[in-house]
Amino acid sequence: MASLKHLRIRIRTVKSTQKITSAMKMVAAAKLRRSQERVEAVRPYDRAMHEMVSHLLKKSRQDLAKEPLLLTGHEDLGIHLLVVVTTDRGLCGGFNGAIIREAKSVIRALQGQGKVVKIFCLGRKGQTLLRSEFGDLIVETIVHGHKTGTGKSTENFSDALDFSTKLQGMLIKKEFGEASILFTVFHSALRQTIAHHSLIPFHANWENPDLLPIVELESHKSALYEYEPNVDSLLDFLLPRYLAVELYRVFLENNASEQGARMTAMDNATRNAQEMIKRLELSYNQTRQAYITKELIEIISGAEAV
Q: Model-level pTM greater than 0.90?
């Protein structure tokens, strides 16, 4: 039987943990609200960018003098770059574990197709969890998020633009032939789904069922467009821009999903701590009552002996 002192220490420890998890839950809830607003704001822009580039390709692809590299990739190279987006910190339940399980499944499927797989980790947890089994495939790991002047970390479009430029540089150097990204789509604090999307080459027929559709007017579908100066120049500008916007949306989706998962995990931890405190307090009262009863029996036995 545990001593009263030991039980008191455990109760005090669990209460301290409960205060921490409760505070983390409130912080995650506040961050989630801001993250949700940002991801809902960027989704229509990302969808519109995709529709614009898709429309441009469907109507004028035959007019291209030379197709951009982002449109074709290096199909004959046989090297697939998988970008795995995780978090930099833990304490968010099974959020990172689910992404890593899916990543391992995708890697094995690609290897089964005879492709050489390279892994680019966005987030420290991805490297940590993939290192034991696929460490030799990881080409680089960077943290996502930008340190502002106040010291707070936030997802910034400049980070997406930098990463987009880095991917294009790797593509030009033929370090990979095609690229895809694995991340988490935010739906609500209780629901996030894992998505695997192609980044390079660009697919005009790509549809994302996870995003809310933008209603397109019938008059726009049949409208005629004139492009200046020419289609080649427009695509040279739009495709890199679209890639950066897509990466920015991925960052925001993953950040909102992380905060939702962390809020849920900390809420569950707080509830579990409360239940543990109740059990420990019950055990403490029972042990205290047993000590009191024992002392009374000893006193009564001593009095009878006298």
A: no
* Domains along the sequence of the chain with CATH: 23-205+225-266 (3.40.1380.10)
Could you read off the pLDDT of 45-60 as tens digits, one per residue?
Answer: 888 888 888 878 877 7
Quick one: which H or E segment has residue 178? Answer: strand 178-186
Hey, what are 39's tokens?
């991801």
Q: What is the DSSP letter of 180?
A: E
- How far CA 61 is from CA of 64, 96, 127, 262, in Å, comes to 6, 40, 39, 45
Q: Kindly calculate the radius of gyration of the chain based on its CA atoms and give it in whole angstroms.
A: 28
From the list 14, 71, 85, 92, the catalytic residue is: 92
Residue 288 has a CB neighbour count (10 Å cut-off) of 12
**Percent of all residues in the chain with a pLDDT value above 90, rounded to a whole number:** 46
Question: 121 catalytic, yes or no?
Answer: no
Task: Quote the CA–CA distance of 60 and 10 in Å, as a whole number.
Answer: 71
Across the range 173-198, mean pLDDT stands at 91
Burial of 261: CB neighbours in 10 Å, binned 0-12, 13-18, 19+: buried
Q: What are the phi and psi torsion angles at 16 (to 5°)? A: -65, -40
| pLDDT per residue as tens digits for the range 83-130 | 999 998 888 988 999 999 999 999 999 999 999 999 999 988 999 999
Nearest to 154 by CA among 164, 144, 163, 166: 144
